[in-house]
């Protein structure tokens, strides 16, 4: 009788919440949820009662008050009369700037070093090993401080450029000045500029977007697209006729001519830095704090990336290399066409976490006086207003959003790379 | 046929030629250099550039390190000696500051007559770790030391009566007793609840009274040291070791939670892990230094080092969870299925089958997490704790050493390098050993 | 290694932990130690020596208060604080007294709910430049790169000064004095600005101090003083009158050398007698014993002695008394009468 072997439709008992696997998971989850909520409630309740006892309350009003301090490194306009929110925004942009610059340079350095560590040149491989071990085993904060100290001590100060027989001189036909306050390089100027678009009116998040830059980017991407179309056309022709038409002069023309036309229309010329008063003026000024932080973060992270790259390359079996050489590929092509595309899949996930680490480590910028968001919102603003709770919470939120966005973008990319696999 | 053949061949060598030495260009240093340094023009260029670079670095560093002043009590004294000896003050180190302050950089303000205590604690730490890290070579009896270490270490470092750690230990004993006695009588669940509640009640309400009663009878105590007197490398090591030690169990639970099928539990664990991993450590330290007191019930006030340890532990736990999750994911699926087919329940299979293997695979990851946390302890200088970097600022604030710079950093960097390099070598050798195990 | 490390540590730390809500003076007495917030290191004001003992001018104030309340100038726990952590440390009760060259401002006093108990050093923000630049006034600094120590009121004063005078500048914020010093010496900034006392201390540590000049402009008022939490007036009174006792002692010529003699028997100056407790019951009014001020003065000497020992003209820092002279010598130190 089949009905007898069926479980009895027994009535629900309280003990089933614990002993019956059907209900137990639910019980555990609800208990965990209640526990978490109680914990959160406990913290919030404590916070409120403590703040009451101190006579403070949570108030973000300070963000709209004048900040009162100046920030040297700024990507958009800022004055000391602007609000704390504006100062935080400037800091946020600086954080993003160093993160982007650092990740780019760390990747380049890391790949080069990782490949060189596998070099057949004994000395080079050893030097790279020493580099990796040195940077991995000393705290990044020390490296940041040391990088700044090296820049300051070893480069000439603007004072040395002055006088009849200056101790230092500008480089590359007097167009670049390398000083211990930073690097001054020529800047692009447009005498017939298209102007700017202004966003967000008068608010604290206002910024200008240069139309010149947009136009340049548009032309650049347009040219690249055209070149790719040309390549496809040449490829199709080769498939059809067996002969590949010569296209390099068209490619060159497509890349250069539209750009030249645009630059002439804009009235492009370079602005050179020159020594005026205490400092160089004119040109683009890259501050030593930015350079030191950039160097230190990217060199530190590069040591980790190098290990990841090396591991990725070693993970590809030797047969792949041998097969590639059997096909007659040169070593550089073997690397580019066979090894790296496969190694990428191993490399990308840990690379993402290194990018995240670099971004988070950029919060040590304050050690060299680079005003990132920890230096503005979590530094001077917090000091001057005494709003620790609000500042720290905002700071964490900002970093969380940055980290999660990087993870999202990189995971999306990772998925795309994965799809190639068959 | 063989005869004709023998006649037609005029000459057959019947002895092997004696081996000639290889040409001079293929052996010895020259051969090695040709193969490894000058195999192509590109490699030759690289070699020459590398040699020039090495020479440049060493020619700057070596005179600075060795043409230096050891016997001086202040920077100005150093400068006088330098001017007297070499005529200028540039390119010479003033190690006098290290000579005077090296103990402070190691131990902070720990009373000098008690330096043996952190040293013993460190030695015991190595003994306690040995059965874990070198499981094959060390007798497993030493695991007793590992089990006792969490109680001995705080007592050694902070001092005070021996009864406090003993009472904490007794709590665990009581919990275990309650569990074993009750599990036969009222079932395992009630026993587990009792096993958790009994020690909590003991710690909260009874242990203090018992400890003070015992202390009045038998006053066994070490001189107590306040945590504010901790500093230097001792502080870095303490924060690192405690954070890693405490984060291990938390990390295991977080990793299990993240891999479990229970939706809410998983969401909570993922939220916690991603939150902690998404913010820089420095913001967590800001929380420790400025906010943690606000989050706690009014009136509680525990000192900054403990608050920092708590935050660093949470930080390390999130990373540890990811390391252990990696270890769990690396286990072949057959292990889970094997455990299920034996009829083990979730906790039994975790305890007996999964965790021992997963943790073993994770040890290299755990070690590198530890290296990371140990290096990150330098950040506590930003919130005013006197770790080596913080102390270097304090030393420079002494009028005698105001203006000294490189020597302190060099000393700190070298110490960090030695410790971290040693650990990373260990983890590498372990990785190698584990790899042969599994292939 | 289990959670017990924390539990064990908690038990130990439980000894140090206490409720912050009770009267501070009772807490301090029960604890037997004064928790005093100082800087993480500022030449002359607070720094640990090779034996780990804190020394300096601010440290002297802490020791005096500890001596007055607890009878032992060494019964002080020094808590190093940074610009960020100092106010939270005080507000949360982690420290009882903050003696960390903190500028007395309206918002700190009123908005942040603290109580400044007096001024132990009148400072002001100044500028230092290399002599070879040939600058004689801060108004000539148009376009200069200025190193600032962050975390203080310095950057606000600087921004205001340059805006008011309509001159441009390039601020370089720097976290510690040591780094600022290094950048300035290497020429990475033209000017170093911080409190005048800090400038003097920094200049004194240079290889060639005469190559640098401190400009005459003082662009801000920086009355530095110890502070306590709002609301605990008894504790505030103790700190305030201990500081006043040190200053008054100098005014009336009570030094650590002659204090034993002066306090042995009533002198014919009633003010001295009241300070030293040989007459009246000022100590009792404070909730302390009669000899509180005597112990405070004996801890490190009177104000003048503390000044001379830590930052005065015979130390490497070599600060002149200037504004910090007694009012009788043309300075600003002026205590209310002890009666």
UniProtKB/TrEMBL annotation, chain A:
Q: Which InterPro entries does the record match to this protein?
A: AA_ABC_transptr_permease_3TM, ArtM/GltK/GlnP/TcyL/YhdX-like, MetI-like, MetI-like_sf
Q: Which UniProt keywords apply?
A: Amino-acid transport, Cell membrane, Membrane, Transmembrane, Transmembrane helix, Transport
Q: Name one Pfam family in it.
A: BPD_transp_1
Record-annotated ABC transmembrane type-1 domain positions: 92-410
Claim: Transmembrane helix is one of the keywords in the record: yes
Positions of transmembrane segments:
23-44, 89-116, 137-155, 209-227, 248-271, 291-316, 362-380, 392-413
**Coarse class of the protein's main subcellular location:** membrane
Membrane association type? Multi-pass membrane protein
The superkingdom listed in its UniProt entry is Bacteria
The record's section on CDD domains has: TM_PBP2 (cd06261)
An annotated GO BP: amino acid transport
Q: Which residues form the signal peptide?
A: none
Where does the protein end up? Cell inner membrane; Cell membrane
Choose one Gene Ontology CC annotation of this protein and give it: ATP-binding cassette (ABC) transporter complex
Q: Which GO terms describe its molecular function?
A: transmembrane transporter activity
Q: Which family does it belong to?
A: Belongs to the binding-protein-dependent transport system permease family. HisMQ subfamily.
State the name under which the record lists this protein.
Putative glutamine ABC transporter permease protein GlnM
Query: Per the UniProt entry, what species is this protein from, by scientific name?
Result: Pseudoprimorskyibacter insulae
What gene codes for this chain? glnM
TrEMBL record, chain B:
- Compartments, record wording: Cell inner membrane; Cell membrane
Record-level GO BP terms: amino acid transport
Q: Is-annotated flag, keyword tRNA processing?
A: no
Pfam families for this protein: BPD_transp_1
SUPFAM superfamilies reported for this sequence? MetI-like
One Gene Ontology cellular component: ATP-binding cassette (ABC) transporter complex
Keywords in alphabetical order: Cell membrane, Membrane, Transmembrane, Transmembrane helix, Transport
Top-level division of the source organism's lineage: Bacteria
MF terms in GO: transmembrane transporter activity
Q: What sections of the protein cross the membrane?
A: 41-66, 115-135, 142-158, 189-218, 230-256, 263-292, 304-324, 361-384, 404-423
List residues of the ABC transmembrane type-1 domain: 233-427
Residues in coiled coil:
none
Extract the InterPro entries matched here: AA_ABC_transptr_permease_3TM (IPR010065), ArtM/GltK/GlnP/TcyL/YhdX-like (IPR043429), MetI-like (IPR000515), MetI-like_sf (IPR035906)
Gene3D superfamilies the UniProt entry points to: MetI-like
- Topology in membrane: Multi-pass membrane protein
As for family, the record states:
Belongs to the binding-protein-dependent transport system permease family. HisMQ subfamily.
Could you tell me what this protein is called? Inner membrane amino-acid ABC transporter permease protein YhdY
Q: Which organism is it from?
A: Pseudoprimorskyibacter insulae
Automatic annotation (TrEMBL), chain C:
Protein name as annotated: Amino-acid ABC transporter-binding protein YhdW
Q: Which residues form the Solute-binding protein family 3/N-terminal domain?
A: 33-262
GO BP, one example? Answer: amino acid transport
Top-rank taxon, per record: Bacteria
Task: Give the signal peptide as a residue range, or say none if absent.
Answer: 1-22
Sorted alphabetically, which keywords does the UniProt record give? Signal, Transport
Lineage, please?
A: Bacteria, Pseudomonadati, Pseudomonadota, Alphaproteobacteria, Rhodobacterales
Q: Which Gene3D superfamilies does the entry mention? A: Periplasmic binding protein-like II (3.40.190.10)
Q: Which Pfam families match?
A: SBP_bac_3
Family membership, please give it: Belongs to the bacterial solute-binding protein 3 family.
**Keyword Signal tagged:** yes
């Amino acid at each position: 009788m089949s009905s007898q072997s069926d479980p009895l439709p027994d009535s629900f008992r309280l003990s089933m919440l614990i002993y019956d696997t059907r209900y137990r998971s639910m019980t555990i989850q609800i208990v965990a949820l209640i526990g978490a909520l109680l914990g959160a409630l406990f913290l919030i309740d404590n916070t409120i009662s403590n703040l009451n006892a101190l006579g403070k309350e949570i108030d973000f009003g300070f963000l709209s008050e004048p900040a009162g301090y100046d920030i040297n490194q700024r990507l958009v306009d800022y004055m000391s009369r602007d609000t704390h929110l504006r100062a935080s925004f400037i800091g946020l942009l600086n954080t993003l700037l160093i993160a982007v610059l650092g990740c780019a340079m760390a990747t380049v350095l890391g790949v080069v070093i990782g490949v060189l560590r596998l070099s057949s040149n004994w000395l080079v491989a050893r030097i790279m090993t020493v580099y990796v071990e040195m940077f991995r085993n000393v705290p990044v904060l020390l490296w940041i401080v040391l990088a700044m100290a090296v820049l300051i001590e070893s480069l000439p100060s603007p004072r040395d450029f002055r006088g009849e027989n200056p101790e230092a001189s500008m480089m590359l036909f007097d167009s670049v000045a390398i000083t211990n306050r930073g690097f001054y390089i020529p800047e692009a100027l447009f005498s017939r500029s298209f102007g700017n678009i202004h966003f967000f009116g008068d608010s604290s998040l206002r910024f200008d977007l240069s139309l010149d830059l947009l136009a340049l980017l548009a032309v650049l991407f347009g040219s690249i697209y055209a070149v790719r179309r040309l390549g496809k056309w040449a490829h199709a022709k080769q498939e059809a006729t067996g002969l590949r038409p010569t296209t390099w002069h068209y490619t060159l023309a497509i890349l250069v001519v539209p750009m030249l036309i645009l630059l002439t229309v804009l009235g492009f010329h370079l602005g050179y830095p020159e020594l005026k008063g205490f400092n160089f003026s004119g040109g683009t000024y890259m501050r030593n704090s930015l350079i030191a932080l950039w160097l230190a973060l990217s060199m530190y992270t590069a040591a980790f990336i190098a290990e990841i790259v090396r591991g990725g390359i070693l993970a590809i079996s030797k047969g792949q290399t041998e097969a590639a050489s059997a096909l007659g590929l040169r070593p550089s092509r073997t690397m580019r066409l066979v090894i790296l595309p496969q190694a990428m899949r191993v490399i990308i996930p840990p690379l993402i976490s290194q990018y995240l680490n670099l971004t988070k480590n950029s919060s040590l910028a304050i050690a060299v006086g680079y005003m990132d968001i920890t230096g503005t919102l979590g530094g001077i603003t917090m000091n001057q207003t005494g709003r620790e709770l609000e500042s720290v919470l905002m700071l964490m939120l900002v970093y969380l959003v940055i980290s999660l966005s990087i993870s999202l973008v990189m995971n999306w990319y990772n998925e795309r790379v994965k799809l190639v696999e068959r | 046929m063989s005869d004709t053949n023998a006649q037609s061949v005029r000459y057959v060598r019947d002895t092997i030629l004696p081996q000639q030495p290889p040409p001079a260009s293929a052996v010895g240093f020259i051969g090695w250099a040709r193969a490894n340094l000058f195999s192509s023009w590109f490699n030759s260029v690289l070699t020459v550039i590398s040699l020039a670079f090495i020479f440049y670095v060493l020619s700057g560093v070596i005179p600075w390190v060795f043409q230096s002043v050891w016997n001086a009590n202040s920077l100005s004294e150093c400068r006088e000696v330098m001017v007297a000896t070499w005529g200028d003050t540039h390119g010479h180190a003033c190690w006098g500051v290290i000579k005077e302050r090296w103990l402070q950089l190691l131990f902070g303000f720990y009373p000098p007559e008690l330096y043996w205590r952190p040293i013993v604690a460190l030695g015991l730490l190595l003994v306690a770790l040995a059965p874990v890290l070198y499981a094959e070579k060390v007798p497993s009896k030493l695991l007793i030391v590992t089990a006792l270490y969490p109680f001995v270490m705080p007592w050694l470092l902070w001092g005070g009566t021996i009864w406090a750690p003993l009472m904490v230990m007794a709590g665990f004993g009581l919990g275990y007793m309650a569990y074993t006695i009750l599990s036969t009588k009222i079932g395992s669940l009630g026993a587990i609840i009792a096993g958790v509640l009994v020690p909590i009640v003991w710690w909260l309400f009874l242990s203090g009274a018992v400890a003070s009663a015992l202390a009045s009878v038998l006053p066994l105590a070490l001189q107590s040291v306040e945590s504010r007197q901790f500093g230097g490398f001792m502080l870095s090591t303490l924060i690192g070791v405690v954070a890693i030690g405490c984060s291990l169990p938390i990390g295991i639970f977080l990793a299990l939670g993240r891999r479990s099928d229970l939706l809410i539990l998983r969401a909570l664990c993922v939220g916690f892990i991603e939150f902690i991993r998404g913010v820089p450590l420095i913001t967590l330290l800001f929380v420790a230094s400025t906010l943690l007191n606000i989050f706690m019930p009014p009136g509680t006030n525990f000192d900054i080092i403990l608050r920092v340890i708590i935050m660093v532990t949470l930080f390390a736990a999130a990373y540890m969870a990811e390391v252990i999750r990696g270890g769990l994911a690396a286990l072949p699926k057959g292990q889970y299925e094997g455990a299920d087919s034996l009829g083990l329940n979730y906790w039994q299979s975790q305890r007996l089958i999964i965790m021992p293997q997963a943790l073993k695979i994770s040890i290299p990851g755990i070690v590198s997490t530890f290296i990371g946390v140990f290096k990150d302890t330098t950040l506590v200088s930003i919130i005013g704790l006197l770790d080596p970097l913080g102390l270097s600022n304090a030393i420079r604030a002494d009028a005698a050493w105001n203006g000294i710079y490189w020597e302190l950093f060099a000393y700190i960097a070298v110490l960090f390098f030695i410790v971290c390099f040693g650990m990373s070598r260990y983890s590498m050798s372990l990785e190698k050993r584990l790899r042969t195990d599994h292939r | 290694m289990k959670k017990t490390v924390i539990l064990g540590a908690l038990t130990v730390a439980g000894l140090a932990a206490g409720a912050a809500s009770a009267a501070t003076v009772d807490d301090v007495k029960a604890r037997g130690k004064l928790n005093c917030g100082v800087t993480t290191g500022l030449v002359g004001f607070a720094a640990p020596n090779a034996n780990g003992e804190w020394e300096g001018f601010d440290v002297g104030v802490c020791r005096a208060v500890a001596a007055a309340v607890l009878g032992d100038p060494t019964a002080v726990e020094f808590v190093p604080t940074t610009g960020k952590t100092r106010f939270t440390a005080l507000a949360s009760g982690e420290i009882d007294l903050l003696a960390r060259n903190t500028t007395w401002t309206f918002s700190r006093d009123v908005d942040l709910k603290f109580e400044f108990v007096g001024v132990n050093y009148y400072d002001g923000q100044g500028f230092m430049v290399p002599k070879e630049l040939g600058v004689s006034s801060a108004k000539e600094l148009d376009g200069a790169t200025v190193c600032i120590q962050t975390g203080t009121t310095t950057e606000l004063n600087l921004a205001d000064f340059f805006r008011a005078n309509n001159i441009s500048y390039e601020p370089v914020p720097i976290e510690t004095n040591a780094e600022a010093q290094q950048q300035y010496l290497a020429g990475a900034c033209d000017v170093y600005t911080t409190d005048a006392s800090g400038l003097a201390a920094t200049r004194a540590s240079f290889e060639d101090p005469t190559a640098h000049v401190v400009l005459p402009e003082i662009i801000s008022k920086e009355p530095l003083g110890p502070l306590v939490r709002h609301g605990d007036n008894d504790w505030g009174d103790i700190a305030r009158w201990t500081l006043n006792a040190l200053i008054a002692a100098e005014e009336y010529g009570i030094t650590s050398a002659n204090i034993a003699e002066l306090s042995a028997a009533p002198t014919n100056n009633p003010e001295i007698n009241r300070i030293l407790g040989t007459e009246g019951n000022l100590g009792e009014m404070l909730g302390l014993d009669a000899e509180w001020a005597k112990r405070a003065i004996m801890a490190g000497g009177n104000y003048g002695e503390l000044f001379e020992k830590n930052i005065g003209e015979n130390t490497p820092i070599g600060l002149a008394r200037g504004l910090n002279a007694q009012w009788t010598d043309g300075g600003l130190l002026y205590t209310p009468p002890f009666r």
